[in-house]
Amino acid sequence: MLLSSVVQGLEWNNIEGNLDRKVEAIAYDSRDVVNDSLFVAISGFAVDGHQFIANAVEQGATTIILEKETPVRGDVTVIKVENSRDALARISANFYGNPTEKLNLVGITGTNGKTSTTYFIKSIFEQAKRSTGLIGTTGTMIGDQHIKNKNTTPESLNLQQFFSKMADTQTDNCIMEVSSHALNLRRVAYSDFNIGIFTNLSPDHLELHKDMDEYFEAKAMLFDLTKECNIVNVDDEYGRRLIQRVKDYGTVLLTYGINQKADIYPTNIRYSFDGTTYTVNTPSGSAEITVNLPGDIYVYNSLAAIACAYASDISLAEIQQGILKVTGIKGRMETVYKEQDYKVIVDFSHTEAALEKALNTLRPFVKGKLVLVFGVYADESDQGKEKRVGMSHTASKYADFSVVTSDNPKKHDQMLIIDEIAAAMDSFNGQYKAIPDREEAINYAIEASDKDDTILIAGKGHETTQIIGDQELPFNEREIVLKALKRKKQIVRS
Ligand SMILES: CC(=O)N[C@H]1[C@@H](OP(=O)(O)OP(=O)(O)OC[C@H]2O[C@@H](n3ccc(=O)[nH]c3=O)[C@H](O)[C@@H]2O)O[C@H](CO)[C@@H](O)[C@@H]1O[C@H](C)C(=O)N[C@@H](C)C(=O)N[C@H](CCC(=O)O)C(=O)O
Ligand SMILES: Nc1ncnc2c1ncn2[C@@H]1O[C@H](COP(=O)(O)OP(=O)(O)OP(=O)(O)O)[C@@H](O)[C@H]1O
User: Fold this and answer.
1) N or C, which terminus of the chain has less Cβ within 10 Å?
2) Is-contact 330 348, C-beta < 8 A?
3) Do the bridges between strand 285-291 and strand 265-272 make them parallel or antiparallel, or are there none, so unpaired?
4) ipTM field
5) What pTM does this model have?
6) Residue to mutate, 115, 258, 300, 477, ligand 2, most ligand atoms under 8 Å from C-beta
7) CA distances from 482 to 272, 361, 476, 479 (A)
8) Left if phi > 0, otherwise alpha if psi is -120 to 50, otherwise beta: which for 313?
9) Does domain 334-493 fall into CATH 3.90.79.10?
10) Does the Cβ of 456 fall within 6 Å of ligand 2?
11) 65: nearest Cα among 45, 46, 43, 47
């Protein structure tokens, strides 16, 4: 593609060199540069991409986009922009032929519930014979292909490549999770969203966003990008704030909720450990819904999906079948083991609000003790401290006993984090034992449990690794649980 076409619509401060040259590839990492690449230098959180410009040129980059004045040698076109991440999004969309114009793109944002909502929507759309791709925390799905993502919402270049692949393979719909990081860091800029969905907002990622207002503003950006319809959880305080903001946007507004008056709402909800049934009421009729996941959180997430299907003219019969077909989502209230009243569940709850929901969802079905295994992922900032206290408060209030352990300590001091959680647990009179090694912690919870207990292992969900220092080590909670149970049974028998 010609550089002049790649930079269509890009606003620049300064340009040196020729626009009449070819661009074979775009790269934002110097290590990915090939001949005739366009390299975008990003001032990152960890390192400054500008320091790799010389490397990129050496490897064959013939165009550089940068945001800081940097000397560049060689026969290279240099374009200076205000914001490199925004420029990357603009040129990536151009390079891949603005693929979102050809897709029905649904974006889901909010602190919790994005992943399961995408799964519900994909299943309903497929029931209605609409070919559908998915992008989110558990990866990218295009046809039979399942690609691992580094981020919940990939960088704009990767995202536009996925969109283009979907458009090229007649995958007409794309359902994607949109994180607040992605919105802030311009990863989804220049993507045309048809539908936007807001699930809820509670404290998280306050290391990036100064406070809840700033976090809300980041999430709200998605709804400035949607062209047709916005779907909002009216039971959530921030959802109501969003409704005030978008109601005059000229896009269709659909609300869902259990407690407040909403367009899409449930009646006659019946909860059980294996799932929930309810009657969904929509402006075009009602239908019986069965959700094979427990608790009101999955009522909310399925309602969001139903609202999306309703806005997409999908019949209630297809909605019913689509939701019924979701029989489980990896690491989302996943029952790893169940024998009569003894249960072991793995769940991705890693925020205070999610942990509270997960424990409260299980509580009505617990005959013995509710035992929690949890850690708080590494973040040594003041906000990280607040999170450790908050998670400890939730654990002491809603679990009968907790095993405090590590959750991706990365380069941080895991003992410091665990000591802080332990101090907070003490201050809330929580019953707990601290075992830093996560495998040992799970083993202990299983060994010490009785036949009617329920064990919730929170935090990792679908993840199968533990990050310690620089190393991402294999860590499969399901296998660890089953091995521990096998040992326990042998001990009981002998
Ligand atoms: C804090 C954060 O968001 N970091 C993201 C950011 O990385 P960064 O700015 O730190 O990059 P950096 O390492 O400083 O490097 C700067 C630039 O130099 C380049 N470089 C670097 C080395 C080199 O040799 N050559 C080179 O060119 C890098 O490719 C980069 O372009 O830009 C990268 C490219 O897009 C992201 O992959 C990376 O996400 C990291 C992995 C991350 O952990 N992000 C999390 C916090 C995140 O985004 N999470 C959200 C929400 C999850 C949720 O749902 O809760 C998500 O969407 O995943
Ligand atoms: N609607 C909801 N309200 C509160 N908590 C929820 C809701 N839905 C799911 N959760 C809890 O949050 C955890 C994460 O859910 P899910 O993966 O769907 O959220 P997410 O928004 O995709 O999060 P992330 O972006 O971190 O992947 C679940 O394991 C569950 O405990």
Assistant:
1) C
2) no
3) unpaired
4) 0.95
5) 0.91
6) 115
7) 24, 23, 10, 5
8) left
9) no
10) no
11) 43
- Say whether pLDDT at 381 is over 70: no
Question: From the CA of 179, how far away is ligand 2's center (Å)?
Answer: 12
| Structure confidence at residue 415 as a pLDDT band (50, 70, 90) | confident
Average pLDDT (246-273) is 96
Q: Is the pLDDT of residue 493 over 80?
A: no
Interstrand relation of 173-177 and 132-136 (parallel, antiparallel or unpaired): parallel
> What is the pLDDT at residue 382?
59
The mean pLDDT value for 97-116 works out to: 95
The C-alpha atoms of residue 401 and residue 446 are separated, in whole angstroms, by: 12
Residue-level pLDDT at 378: 65
Instruction: Give me the CATH topology for the region 99-324.
Output: UDP-N-acetylmuramoyl-L-alanine:D-glutamate ligase (3.40.1190)
Q: Mean pLDDT throughout 192-200?
A: 97
Q: Which residues are annotated as a binding site?
A: 30, 110-116, 151-153, 179, 187
Going 25 to 31 to 35 to 40, the CA torsion angle's sign is: positive
> Which residue, 196, 108, 190, 193, is CA-closest to 152?
108
- Please spell the DSSP secondary structure of 168-232, one letter per residue: HTT--EEEEE--HHHHHTTTTTT--EEEEEE----S--TTTSSSHHHHHHHHHTHHHHEEEEEEE
Confidence of residue 488 (pLDDT cuts 50, 70, 90): confident
- Return d(Cα 181, Cα 3) in angstroms, integer: 29
* CATH for the stretch 3-95: 3.40.1390.10
Ligand sitting nearest the alpha carbon of 113? 2
Cβ(461) – ligand 2 distance below 6 Å: yes
CA distance 386 to 280: 38
394 lines ligand 2 (CB under 6 A): no
